[in-house]
Structure formats: C-alpha cells, structure tokens
Amino acid sequence: MKDYQVNRELMNHTKNSEVFDMYCLSAYYSFETFIGKKIGEKFHGNSFEVTDEIFKISHSLVFKEAANCMHTIKAVSAVAL
Prior knowledge:
Layout: H1 8-13, H2 34-43, H3 52-56, H4 62-80
Keywords: Transferase
Protein name: Aspartate/ornithine carbamoyltransferase Asp/Orn-binding domain-containing protein
GO molecular function, one term: amino acid binding
C-alpha cells in the first residue's frame, strides 16, 4: 500500500496545518501489534495504508469518528430488535 499510503509527506502536500485525518476503524496501522505482524507476514507487506504517526496525531479524527459509528450501530440495533 506504500503508493497509496497516508503519511507525513502526503499531509505536508496539503500545505494546510489544519488538515484532518479521518480513517474508518478497524484499521491496521502498525506491525508492532500481533495482528499487524500476521497481516505483514501473510501479505508480504511492508506498509499499511496509514502510518502510525498520522493515525495518532492530534489532527486525527479516527477515534471521534469511531465513537459516532458506535452510536449509529446502537441505534440501528435497537430498531432491528
């Protein structure tokens, strides 16, 4: 995924210090986790689509976005019952 990766270089191309990163969870962004290592081994990868640095920066909305999804899922589940 290196050619399509969201990383510091790509973010710098925006020339906007207020640009946000939004990324859907579940996301694999690090080979330092058990699952990340397994994915790297299985697919012979050396990069994920988003870097650990970008995933965790202050301009990342990943976890806020996940919280919104959680409420949507709960609402849909309540209606389905």
